[in-house]
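Protein: DUF1090 family protein
Species: Pelomonas lactea
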Amino acid sequence: MSLSILVLAAAASAPQIQPATRAEVAAQRAAVEQRFEREAAECQQRFAVSPCLEDVRQRRQAALAPLVRHEHELAAEERRGRAAAQTQRVKERELAAAQEEGQRRQQLLAAPPAEPPAVPASHVTRARNPEAAARERDKAASQAQAQAAERRERAQQRQERMRERVAENEARQQHRGKPAAAPLPVPGASAASR
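Structure follows.
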């Protein structure tokens, strides 16, 4: 018992220096764990093992609490650093994109306007005479009527094929030869027959 009191007194009197890195925190944690493992082993040699172990567990938790808290602070600081770096990268990309867009716009404004492509004389639209326009309208109307008649014919053929399939199916059902199944009994009638 006197050894554990001396260890506690030494730990309490030692200045608590906050570690700066995860490695330092891990080293301090390992030292604390090792110290309390030795104390737990000493407890196993005593007559009252359980109270001694409980005391060691409580002191271990108290000793590890500041280290755990500092680990959390370091992790939060690392997250903030990564978030700031990501924000900086996004700003740099946006700035580069804005600069490229500005340069592209300046080039478009500085460049002379593109001339429309020259159209060959054969493709130049000419004013049509009314007779040619009427012939083209008549031709388009007759093509539309022919296409509509073709669509009607195909629809009639599809309907005829559907009627034939329905008739074949009904004929198969009639020639099947299997009698219809008997109906299920009424629920009230089955209870009354008991």
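Remarks: The longest helix spans residues 49-110.
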